[in-house]
TrEMBL record:
Record carries keyword Transport: yes
TM helices/strands, residue ranges: none
Limits of the Solute-binding protein family domain: 85-420
Family membership: Belongs to the bacterial solute-binding protein 5 family.
Presence of the UniProt keyword Lipid biosynthesis in the record: no
Protein's name in the database: Peptide/nickel transport system substrate-binding protein
Signal peptide: 1-36
Subcellular location: Periplasm
Keywords, alphabetical: Signal, Transport
Length: 521
């Protein structure tokens, strides 16, 4: 089977690359922020190539296509170091109550929004209200499930109360994920950014790119360094890489691992951050034939994860059968062995499903045509399905057309990455396919109550370590049994490939692009 698989790939013209190329990283596999003053960096216009257009300016729309904007237009209450230690940002301090049922946050008093209005606790309260609304909270809504209410005793103080004792990491995750939006701008935040970030929106051309300009009133002294950022959208990774090599751009953000390996060897800087994504085969289990549990479970064994990682991502990442990066406390390597590629086991489950070959083939795989690795791994799965007697078509869509279908849940099945996989395990529910309520794919009521209960158990277990581990184990077993999302591998989202003339490059804990420290040497 493996030989046939490799022949298929060669016929398709896939290129095999070694996974041992060096990358520029610090300890713990992360490049820590470099202070601009230490390098005496110069300003100028930073030209950045992207491979997809943004969705909107709402920081609670935590989609990968928005990762180049979020931490340039906005700031979080707190941030994490590479080791996961919380450090101040818009919040100067936070105090978790002894019973873990509340946290009190103290805000900086020298921060203004892009409108000129001062940041106050009223803005944080308005942001919390938006995040807690299932219609408006988007990716942050699931993280708010632990929140009971909040109070604002004065302009600098916010106290957030929890429904029950919450683990410390879950609390700091909430503060790090909470990005204050100006209260007066919340109604229009999708089209008009309303943040405190180092850059302001200058102009946008839909489908082509956008330009940011430095915020002259930014609260971090000496930042930003670059006076302007010009983001240009390229339809293909190859054209973005060619633009870097011809000095038409200074950075490629979010390019492929295969290109990063090649450009590293050519002398370009490559940065891998601490917040990988996990690639997940998202299944719409409300549509036949995926309403059949045995049919879905077969996909646990139909994924040649090692081949997908090697060919799609040049081996940069980890093979996983669960939606966790290895740093997650819920990560369990045993599942990778248990659910290794096994065509015979997959065929057994397909037979147990009772579906006819015609019924099993009556669906299409939505494919993000703008993303080369996604196209590659979709073709790998299509080949494996064919060996199992299932012949399906690929519905390849580009750019915004794909994003709209993905966010609306308008598909049978598709590959799509999920984030927050290195944080508190229930944070996975911030991703659309894993949401427990208002799931755009699975809808309400959620068709998998065991999964909803497993997430609730993780959120409410803060006792002995054995109890916590049991909650994680239960969630993991439910994930592979319900099988509405099949993880394949982690990979480096937000890869930065940059010209040697740049300094101060860094990624944050989620691998979002942070431009304020970047300048020219």
């Amino acid at each position: 089977m493996k030989t046939q698989f490799l022949r298929t790939l060669r016929r398709l013209g896939f290129l095999f690359l070694a996974a041992t190329a060096p990358v520029v990283v610090g300890s713990a596999g992360w490049t820590a922020p470099v202070h601009a003053e230490e390098q005496a960096l110069k300003g100028g216009t930073l030209r950045v190539a992207l491979l997809g257009d943004m969705t909107n300016f709402d920081p609670q729309q935590f989609s990968t296509v928005n990762f180049h904007l979020i931490k340039n237009l906005y700031d979080s209450l707190i941030e994490y170091t590479a080791e996961g230690e919380p450090v101040p940002s818009l919040a100067t301090a936070w105090a978790i109550a002894p019973d873990n049922q509340s946290v009190t946050v103290t805000l900086r008093d020298d921060v203004t929004f892009h409108s000129g209005a001062k940041l106050t606790s009223a803005d944080v309260a308005a942001t919390l209200a938006k995040a807690a609304d299932p219609e408006r909270g988007k990716n942050v809504y699931a993280t708010m499930s632990i929140v009971k209410d909040w109070t604002t005793p004065d302009e600098k103080t916010v106290t957030i109360n929890f429904k029950s004792p919450a683990p410390q990491r879950q609390i700091t995750d909430l503060l790090q994920f909470l990005i204050p939006i100006e209260a007066a701008g919340i109604a229009t935040v999708e089209t008009v950014p309303a943040g405190t970030g180092a850059y302001l929106l200058d102009s946008r051309a839909v489908g082509q790119g956008l330009t940011l300009k430095a915020n002259p009133n930014y609260w971090r002294k000496g930042q930003p360094i670059a006076e302007k950022i010009e983001f240009t959208i390229f339809s293909e990774d190859a054209s973005a890489s060619a633009a870097l090599e011809s000095d038409a751009v200074d950075i490629v953000y979010g390019g492929t691992s295969r290109s990063a390996v090649r450009l590293q060897d050519a002398g370009y800087q490559v940065l891998r951050g601490p917040g990988p994504l996990v690639q997940v085969f998202r299944i719409n289990s409300t549509r036949p034939p995926f309403t059949n549990a045995k049919f879905r479970q077969a996909f646990n064994y139909l994924m040649d994860r090692e081949g997908m990682l090697r060919v799609g991502y040049a081996g940069l990442g980890e093979v996983v059968a669960l939606p966790w990066a290895p740093a997650s406390p819920a990560f369990d390597a045993a599942y990778t062995d248990e659910f290794a590629y096994n065509l015979d086991k997959a065929k057994e489950l397909l037979a147990e499903s009772g579906l006819t070959p015609a019924e099993m083939s009556n669906w299409k795989m939505l494919v993000w045509g703008s993303d080369e690795p996604t196209v590659v791994i979709s073709q790998i799965l299509q080949s494996a399905l064919a060996e199992a007697g299932i012949n399906i078509e690929l519905d390849v869509r580009q750019g915004a057309e794909y994003t709209e279908a993905l966010l609306a849940g308008n598909f049978d099945a598709t590959f799509g990455a999920v984030g927050n996989v290195q944080k508190f395990p229930s944070r996975v529910a911030t991703n659309s396919i894993y949401r427990v309520v208002k799931n755009p794919v699975l809808k309400d009521p959620h068709p998998h109550p065991d999964y909803v209960a497993a997430i609730e158990r993780v959120n409410t277990t803060s006792g002995p370590d054995a109890d916590v581990k049991a909650a994680y184990d239960n969630l993991n077993r439910v994930l592979v049994t319900d099988a509405f999302a099949i993880p394949t591998n982690s990979y480096d989202t937000g890869l930065i490939v940059a010209s040697p003339k740049l300094g101060g490059l860094a990624l944050d804990i989620d691998n979002l692009f942070v431009a304020r420290t970047v300048g020219f040497q």
